[in-house]
Amino acid sequence: MISKKKKILHVGNRPGLDNKLKFRNSNICLYRDDRFTHQVSTHLIFAIYYIGELSLTSVLIKQMREHGISLFLLNDSLKTYAEITSAAEGNYILRKKQYHHNDSFALEISRNLVLNKVQNQYNALQKTRTGIVITDIASINGITNAKSTESMLGFEGNAAKGYFNRMFDNLKWYRRTPRTKEDIPNLLLDIGYTYFI
């Protein structure tokens, strides 16, 4: 049976031997004087603490990064002298909470996000345009009464369309055409997105 929890691996040095860590067949393998001694699956390891001198392979370093494994090299008095850390991809506690919520909670969160986005778009337009009302951008009533997250995507798309049409109306820009370069305003907008993201 495979464990659901990741492990921290502690490995001690053998003085007088050539100690190496290598990657082989989804495993991290320990070699002493070029003789294989131990292996652990990369899917089970969270971090490795190695005490003493060690040789590493570049393939192992690459695989440790891909699997989110951190390596800490310690001297004989357990003081860290080198480390290869792997940053976590996002907030796993937040993701766990998101996956365990029901559809009505997800709809409420997406509703709030879209309403905030529309409000921000409206505020941006107010700074540059006169006579704009928030209903020019989106149907607030439609957003607040949406029955599914899929319909919320439609409202968000319509809001973005309304926002861009009003924000760039002085450029005679009537529609967003991604991945095509048929006119100068679209070309400049794509360059702008590239620099500001």
Uncertain runs with pLDDT below 50, 5 residues or more? none
Summarize the amount of helix as a percent range. Answer: 40-55%
Gross morphology: elongated
User: What is the averaged pLDDT score?
Assistant: 78
* Strand-pairing-aware structural class: alpha/beta
Distance between the termini: 44 Å
Number of helices, counting only DSSP H or I runs of 4 residues or more: 6
Radius of gyration: 27 Å
Written description of the protein model:
Helix content is 42%, strand content 22%. By secondary structure, the protein is α/β, with parallel strands linked by helices. The chain has two domains: 7-84, CRISPR-associated endonuclease Cas1, N-terminal domain (Ribosomal Protein L15, Chain: K, domain 2); 92-196, no CATH class. The strands form two sheets. It has a four-stranded mixed sheet with strand order 1-5-7-8, covered by helices on one side. A hairpin with a 2-residue loop joins β3 (27-32) and β4. The longest helix is centred in the middle third of the chain and has 26 residues, at 103-128. It is elongated, with a radius of gyration of 27 Å. It comes from candidate division WS6 bacterium OLB21.
For this entry, give a set of tags:
42% helix; 2 domains; alpha/beta; manganese; 197 residues; 6 helices
In short:
The protein contains six helices and eight strands, in the order E-E-E-E-E-E-H-E-E-H-H-H-H-H. It is an alpha/beta fold and 197 residues long.
Give the secondary structure arrangement, pairings included.
Layout: E1 7-12, E2 19-24, E3 27-32, E4 35-41, E5 45-51, E6 55-56, H1 58-67, E7 70-74, E8 80-84, H2 92-100, H3 103-128, H4 140-144, H5 149-167, H6 184-196
Parallel strand pairs: 1-5, 2-6, 5-7
Antiparallel strand pairs: 2-3, 3-4, 7-8
